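Appendix C. Worked example: Oxygen sensor histidine kinase NreB
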Amino acid sequence: MTPRLPMSQHRNGPALVRGLVDRDGEVALLLDVIQLTASGPEVEPLAAEVARLITDATATDVCFVHVLDDTEGSLTLAGATPPFDQQVGRVRLPLGVGVSGWVAKHRTPVVLPEGKGSDPRYVPIAELRGADFVSMASIPMEVDPGGLVGVLNVHTVERREFLQRDVELLRVIGRLVAGALNQARLHRRLAARERMHERFVEQVIATQEAEHRRMAGDIHDGISQRLISLSYHLDAASHAAGGGDPTEVTAQLTQARELLGLALDEARSAIGGLRPPVLDDLGLAGGLASLARSTPQIETEVELADHRLPEHVEIALYRIAQECLQNVVKHSRASSATLRFDVVDGSARLEVADDGTGFDTAATGGPGRDDVRGYGLQSMVERAELVGGHLDVRSQPGAGTTVTVTVPYR
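Step 2, the predicted output written as structure tokens:
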């Protein structure tokens, strides 16, 4: 599709030094933007409407609104002039990469009247057809006090000298839009957190019911049956004693003792499924060390500080470490792992690292996805957040995986 004729031709004439819009147009545009930001739409509709307003009111041909994503490590295209609106959500730029990434990292506008292909900061994006446009201006969108929300880009088909007045106009629009976009992002995060919490509550209830059924089955099929057999052997021993047969008494009591030992083992196993008894006996550091020793399939180095935490936090960290080590054994093909725990600067920090095959976290959508190379991170993320913590996953193909849990601690 051929880009539209430049606004400088069909609206303001061919002069290249004229501003993007006259004074009256500036006021009208800013009023439109203010009215738009007060309407409180979601991120993508707001970004799309801003792009439309700018291109309709100024001598520009396309506008792109890139918004800082939740990881705060890259920009995502959130709004664009048609036909590029089809690329919304698909185009991503790490901070520092490309002109937009450079602007986001340095919080400084960039104006390129021509020759952008020779600018070392420029990275062509095939989906946005940069070669079709000669001039561009890239402006950071910030909220006070200096928080970056995204980057606003405008492009023209024909060469244009963007005046300082043009840059200031775009910066004002960027600031107005940034506040609304930031509120929309926070609202979306809150809604996502609420949905995650609802799912977690559902999972907890379902898990509890499944655990209750499992324990009832274990007690019925295991402990109860062994106790019934134990009662039988004790009765047999009693009859043998009444008949004066000491050999039979000894045999029955021996079998009864074996059954009692098995019943006790199964009872301990059932209790351990509810709360790891090792935490009561050894504390979190000792429990983690015991956990590492009980995973003989992989050599695990431990660096554990002896700090006690609230009971629910210790259980959460122990279970996360337990699942991490199971994942290392099942999926990572690692030869060794490291388990670290400490309390530093008011935060409890648990880290499990391996030297395995690793995976591409960006390609899988981050730790919120339950299908990340079989790691099943969703339950660990939710378990960490339930105790007020945060789980972070760092991994690259061939470079191993590190899972870090940080929980504020007072």
